[in-house]
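User: Before I run my own analysis I want an independent prediction to cross-check against. Here's the chain; please return only the structure tokens and, at the end, one sentence I can use as a sanity check.
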Amino acid sequence: MDRPKLRRVADGLPLVGVSLGLVRYLIDERLLGHHGGGLAAVGGGFVGLLVLSWLLRRVSGMTWREALWPRREPPPWSQLPPSMASVNELAQAGKKIQAIKMYRELTGASLVAGKEAVEAMIVRRSLP
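Assistant: Structure tokens:
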């Protein structure tokens, strides 16, 4: 398995595991009436999956610090230089909130004015 794929598996493992554990708990204890450890077993399983996730990250080549606190890549719109062309680009790409934020940073406009300006950019672009 390649390293990026192993890291994606490690990222999703705790969430999937705890979801399955909670479903099993709800079915076994609440619907069927069996008693198999309850929520403590789900919590223990979650901690185990966190450890397994950390080990998979380490095997994939991450340092111990990256494995414990993985860094998320910055969103692509944060790498655009702040300009009105970038605002227009974001608006046309459907990233309305980011476009409004960048517009407000550039002009110092209020939230309402920024929202109206970005919506006007979208409407202007959609006209033939």
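Sanity check: The chain has six helices and no strands.
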